[in-house]
Amino acid sequence: VSTGVLDPIRLEGDLTVQVAAEYKILLLNALADGDEITLDLSGINELDTAGLQLLLLLKREAGQLGRTVRFTEPSPAVLEVLALARLDLALVPISTSGEPLTDQAGGS
Amino acid sequence: MTFEDEMASALGNFILEAAELLAEMETGLLALEEDAADEESINSVFRAAHTVKGSAGLFGLDPVVRFTHVVESVLDRMRSEEVSASAGLIGVLLPCKDHIGDLIAGVAAGVSQETAEQAAIGAALLARLTPYLSDAVVADPGAVPVSTAPADFAVPAAPAVPAEEAGQLFHLSLRFGAESLRNGMDPLSFVRYLSTMGEVVALTTLTELLPEAEDLDAEQCYLAFQITLRTEDNAENIAGVFDFVREDSDIRVLPRGSDPSDYADLVTSFGPHGRAVAGILVAEGAIPAADLRTAIQQLAQGSDAPGPDPQRAGAGVDDSAAAGSQPVLDDPIPRPRSADTEAVPESPATSPVAGPTPARRAGDRGAAENQTIRVDAGRLDRLIDAVGELVIAGAGAELRASLSRDEGLQTALGEVMRLVEEVRDGALQLRMVPIGTTFSRFQRIVRDVSATLGKDVTLTVSGGDTEVDKALVEQIGDPLTHLVRNALDHGIESAEIRAAQGKPARGSLRLNAFHDSGSIVIEVQDDGGGIDPDRVLAKAIERGLVEPNAVLTEKDIYGLIFEPGFSTAATVSNLSGRGVGMDVVKRNVTALRGTIDVESRPGQGTTLRIRLPLTLAIIDGFLVGVGGATFVVPLDRVVECVELPAESRNRDYMGLRGEVLSFVRLRSLFALPGERPRRENVVVVEYAGTKTGLVVDALKGEFQTVIKPLGALFENVQGIGGSTILGNGDVALIVDVPTLVRHAEEWQRSRLASV
To answer: Mutate which of A14, A31, A82, A84 to disrupt the B interface (most B C-beta within 10 Å)?
Structure first.
């Protein structure tokens, strides 16, 4: 049951292969709960391939479901990985103000 | 079919499709002009540009790809709300769309390279687009804009690409083993290490291999990377980086200039996702699309290995949507960003080339759009022709059955005929298309023409879903354009005059279509100054079209504007109504068996009304007999039927309610044998306001019939417009009323002159 826009979900600590399975369930559930979810990435210390592909999966799922997922406040670790994978444009519309920009892919 | 043939036919499809996409783009842009925030329009415009670019890439139409790429980048920024669809931007994008159309038109004409003029136009347009790209032009697509990065975190320096670089280029394809993550190998750390060996010129994270959410094991690695690396190291050292993971991974290091088969092998190894990889390789300049295509083709033939469609693979170029990639004007080559999860539909034009095409293509598109298939018009015509024969043959059978007195047979045949008619209606329906497609192009015309004239005009379109024969739609476009231009030019007044007359400053033009008793009626209505009948009459007298003392009704006067010789260049500027080439419009409409009339209220506006038959293939006819022959007079030309008065038996005119009606005897006109019957009939027909009688022996009633063209031998026969076959198998000729009326008039005139 959709309940519309949810409060931002803040992710803390590592988003790596060690916790990826748990996060997969948690994030997909969150997506099932709201039309629009926002993930606050400011608390992430480490992001690896497993974490990255999880974020990409979430984005794709949102697109398929016609929902929106926004990533905001990326931490330096997140920014480094996104820059490395050259995904910043696709994945994170970053704003200086901390306000999420309108998401271009997941929504509508 | 040879590969070349397939390519040629695919290119033809592309050109057709591109025209449709560009029309879609234009519609979207015009909608945005009204409502800059219309997300749907933004998306549709973007999709259209994106697809055109992708398909153009497949055919190696570099000028199209280069130009469209920049346009697409701007559109992408519009989509992500980095720039707004301002009037200024739309004003640039519209000519850009035209330019793309122009480039593709060149391709259609067999010129794949742009002309110097096109290049100049393109460059000028790109210059106008540049401001809308500005802050997206980051030196490196991967670089996070500095302002957004936290102060304590340095973004890895991503150098801009200098013109000259030391070292060699390598194309790396990295697919790590599924277990590599669990084994503690993070693919990203390998990528990170690569950047210490040289410069990562381009990198694409491929997400294509990610399975559906429920099937995804979060601890397995599904991401792949496609990297272009510039380094002074050799291939061996680069490969050595991956020694730890080599066993269950697929790591390929291809120096720039490797054998095409190596690239082809790489692409095919990606199976259905090869297309994306091919697109990246081509975009990175690893190998020209054509070479790659050929190599894949050869590979597929050689090994019989299942692989992606060669052409599809080459089409991957369209995956690029990178808005803020390289400084766009300097390096307009598409830069794929395959992590792109946007729901941009796969380019439809990529599939026609591939093997079992049309059906699959129809299916692909059908899911996303209206369920439509494209059918060759010639085939449709043949079908309709055959159905026409079927109707005729059926009528013949029915006649026989009625003679046999076999009731069971008659009932059965009645049912067959009902179905046959249903089939006929269905077949004719296939040719029907909504007129809205024709109407939609007028938004642009109105916009451009009114801008040129400095007028502010809104176009309202209604009845766009009214259906009409496709052939008619195509042929009515030009006359309509003429009427619309005329209305804008001469009909609607300038804002000052309108204000002085207390009208809203914004003029209004209306296009409307509706069905009315077997015809389609198209109206072009303006709220301008209307036509001044006195001036029209004065002009007509001056031109010798009417006698100075003639008494004409208002309707007659308005009809004068369609007279040849009425409008000349001089009338364009000073006539309050319209002028240019209305006779041409009328001729076009008449050629389609239609009529046009005009209704005007001085000071309030003008309505031009075109009435056309719904289809060109079938007419409602009126059957008449002369001697043993049967003729069909188009019913819409028939005014009435009267008996030939005895006193006119030996004259060429008769009195009809106080007017003189001249007539043509079909018997003598067509030199038909046989005695004249005691009683003759006159079918009164009207064309262009002139009534003429056709003298015939017998009136046989109405008859709906399929028109068959005359053979080449009879092409130049005057007075006959076609033929049809009657139920009893006889051939009936269809009378060409306009020619006969003109013939009667001329004959009359020459007789008067000789007196």
So the answer is: A84
